[in-house]
Amino acid sequence: MASKLPKSPLEHSAGGAGAAAESPGAPPRGLLRWLLTTNHKEIGTLYLVFSLSMFFIGGIFALVVRLELFQPGLQFVEPEFFNQMTTLHGLIMVFAAVMPAFTGLANWMIPLQIGAPDMALPRLNNFSFWLLPVAFTLLLATLLMPGGGPNFGWTFYAPLSTTYAPPSTTFFILGMHLAGISSILGAINIIATILNLRAPGMRMMDMPLFVWTWLITAFLLIAVMPVLAGVITMMLLDINFGTSFFNAAGGGDPVLFQHLFWFFGHPEVYIMILPAFGIVSAIIPTFARKPLFGYASMVYATASIAILSFLVWAHHMFVVGLPLVAELFFMYTTMLIAVPTGVKVFNWITTLFQGSISFETPMLFALAFVVLFTIGGFSGLMLAIAPADFQYHDTYFVVAHFHYVLVPGAIFSIMAAVYYWLPKWTGHYPSERLGRWHFWLSVIGVNLTFFPMHFSGLAGMPRRIPDYALQFADFNLVSSLGAFLFGFSQLLFVVVIVKCVRGGEKAPAKAWEGAQDLEWSVPSPAPLHTFETPPHVTPQPHP
Amino acid sequence: MWQVIKSVLAAFFGVQKERQRRRDFEQGRPGHFILVGLVAAAVLVLLVVLLARLAAS
Amino acid sequence: MPRRLAWLSGAGGFALSPQVLANGWNMPVGVTDLSREIHSLHMTIFWICVVIGVVVFGVMFYSLFRYRRSRQPQAANFHEHTTVEVIWTTLPLLILVAMAVPATATLKNMYDTGDAELDVMVTGQQWRWRYDYLGEEVAFTSSLSTPRAQVRGEEARGETYLLDVDNPLVLPVGRKVRFLFTSDDVIHSWWVPELAVKQDTVPGFVNENWVRINEPGIYRGQCAELCGIDHGFMPIVVQAMAPDEFDAWLAERRDEAAQEALGVDRDWGHEELMTRGEEVYAAICASCHQPEGQGAPPTFPALAGNPRLQEDLGWQLDTVINGVSGTAMPAFRNTLNPVELAAVITYTRNAWGNATGDVVQPARVAERLAR
User: Fold this and answer.
1) Complex prediction ipTM
2) Which of A143, A543, B22, C188 is surrounded by the fewest CB atoms within 10 Å?
């Protein structure tokens, strides 16, 4: 936020699009070009396209689940396949849709926002992307194997995922390992880029919040992905080499699995939301035409959330039989997280106050993010109260909670980012009319799907069941209708993107009049190579 | 040193005067802040553990 | 509150059946002192969230409306205000402390399992529950009794669809009952909302929880932790009765168990073993090996037409009694008594075209169990 726009947009974008393509060492054409590219923009595009396709695959799995739950009884799929669908929906959405989308946005935007010519480690960048299709081809291929794919939930609790797992579990483990390596390499690259390639004159506290939140996220990734790798390696050993890490009969401890998993899993939750905070903190000031209320306190709050995320993991395990002191410790730390999260929400709202607000599609998604993410935060606060969690745990109330923070949270922020930066990527504005349709249908769909889940959960419906008692029928009917509405309205998103790539109203370098950051100083569409000579950023004194 | 501790505590609380913050960034060394930050995080954990033990007894 | 919400949803155009209202939109208040405490914590934190939400969203929507571009072409330019920031950090902290105090008290109460008058061991098994009244010589398993035909939609679904079991857990009203939870295979979670008891059953470990029920009645719940294919089909039914009725019931079950023990020594006829075996098979085996013994390979092998099963009785006895480690086949030596084991083995050797003609006597199984 704090950097002034350089005087002339074209000054440091030596060449421009045409010249870049003709320059010596021009990239190979066709498929090979995408396979071998080391350009951060192309790799960013690859990540985003991959993520969008996986979003649809994970979405289809979700719709299979919602179809079966449309009515009581078993109509469409068997419980065995139902469990594979819930598991793969979760795994694909977390590891193949949300995380790569944020990495794609980071690839595209971080170099542009800090005035760097590319990522610090371009070949590593190429490698970390191409690990992903391999990883998820392996994972999805398990569906065709004898005994089916993973059917133990995306949290894959042992011993259901070890002693009692289908034979394909070893492939699942290999796939997760590859995805994990990809994330770690991507995180290393992002940290190296941010710490080393900032334009002269840009201090840490001058970086846009998207860069800040990603920096902190990258440290979280490096800290916790190895824990995931460790825990799935222990599973691998238990399954194939006769160890008993998680097998009580051999002296192991199934609860150890949960501690390790959630020590990874809770920071993972923040990995999926911190970059979203960064995006929203860029969009709201742009369309309120007013600087972010508390830049420094946003940075502090992000760091606080990151630190606290390592201290709360066992709140996922309140009913597993923890000692009283542990329950109290994790209840207190979990409640503490509400404070920095609240600070963020207050900051966004104060930014709106006395602004001059317009409602373009990116802003609509960002505002919906603030409201609906906060609702997810409220249910999170309720879940933090350990005694009450004995009633909430593993019910649809929890499903409602984490879908509120992940769908209108993480995913809406990604959509907001796409609408916000599409003019920079393509040189055209996305269709405002279709964007609005997409927005309103999504908002209605999301709330119809997930709001009734609060009620069915409180009324006693457990998670991950393929069939349910009759008193939950009406809630599930509404949820299923909402899910289909939400799912099909995402086709509009594809239409908007395709139309925007092909043409539309031309966007100037600074596509949104309230925008402040450095990416708006290069032409739209951003040429393949930007900032080959670093821009000089005049540090703006904090008033 | 006292200044560093004060600034880290302010960061843990999440609020800091702009003037203080600028002084820290101009005069402070990042290593000091990181070290004191880690110690403060450990102290926070210990405090909550103590509180939980106290509450449980 | 339910009535108001019902009106809202009516206005929204959804045709809601009265059943939803009868069963509620909210956490049940429950029938124990603890469940009431938990419910009131839940409502308190809910209303705190509502109030914060109204204030925060109120300011937000006011700003969106009041400071829209057409009305406010020029934005103000202010940011950072230490006093405001201190207030909005401190106030939530105070609210949280106010919430933490009663939550801590309730939690301590939940963990106080001392002075129980009755101990019940609850063992999770794929996909049924086993209840042991410790020191009372009474133990039984409890499985889903809703007919599969209702699941398939071939029969009308009853009011307690998926929430019926063959043997409910019977508990006395007014006495403190301590539960000990464990599992024979994967992690399950025993949950009855009206009792506010939810506890994971972890293989190799024993968890504790307790309940003192205030009102007689029938309380239903379900397994809450994903435990495999039939996770959605292992309900819990608790029948709470007056203490004297409970004592009479317990005595009766104790006699039955003694009777059953005598049955081990007598010679059983083919027909009675088949009848008994069919019941056991339907309650215990059919969820994996399927009602017609066709199985679900490769995880669950077929029993109908299985050559090894028909040729090798010793192997089948060993498989059923001790389970097969590393697979989903559990050991039934502690779950079923010799009569039930003999009956179900006889049944599987003579049903669905398996025609060994074997009659396996309970005495033979008992001898095998003793080895």
Assistant:
1) 0.88
2) A543
